[in-house]
């Protein structure tokens, strides 16, 4: 059973019909291309179980929204405010989330395979557990973990870090990621 507080928050979220959402995304696209339109503000919205796949949502505000179990695959969220949102079970496959703010968001059970999260804020709480990710994101997270300075930590933590750093190929993960990034930058 949903608590009164959760029920109140859920009912306070803005709701949109499919037609309204299509129009908001279309207006946002015009705004992005400087052809009129209006920047989409979808903060505090209930967009759960929606299909926003293949959408250009750069610089959109989706903060504090419910996008749980939504199809967000193949979409562009670069520079977007995605903080404190519920993305549980959502499909982000092959999406670009570069420079987006995911701080405080619940990504539990979402699929980020093939997605680009360069320069994004990754939520470091239980809401990022169980996320399905591809080689690239795994490589980035592993490399950053292995790069932490734990010299002032207890012996157990230092031993764990030594084991992580001793893993065969930690540097290879990082090198492969940067080689991929360099080739992408040269193509662009």
Which key features would you list for this structure?
elongated; mainly alpha; two-stranded parallel sheet; Pectate Lyase C-like; 35% helix; two-stranded parallel ribbon; 188 residues
Question: What is this entry, summarized?
Answer:
The chain has helices spanning 4-12, 18-32, 135-146, 155-166, 170-187, and strands spanning 14-15, 45-46, 111-112, 132-133.
Question: What's the structural domain tally?
Answer: 2
CATH class of the largest domain: Mainly Beta
Radius of gyration: 19 Å
CATH fold node name of the largest domain: Pectate Lyase C-like
State the secondary-structure class: mainly alpha
Categorize the overall geometry: elongated
Number of strands: 4
Kindly state the mean pLDDT as a whole number? 88
Helical content band: 25-40%
Main sheet attributes: strand count, strand direction, barrel closure: 2 strands, parallel
Strand proportion, as a percent range, falls in under 5%
Question: For the largest beta sheet, what order do the strands appear in spatially?
Answer: 1-2
CATH homologous superfamily annotation of the largest domain: E3 ubiquitin-protein ligase SopA
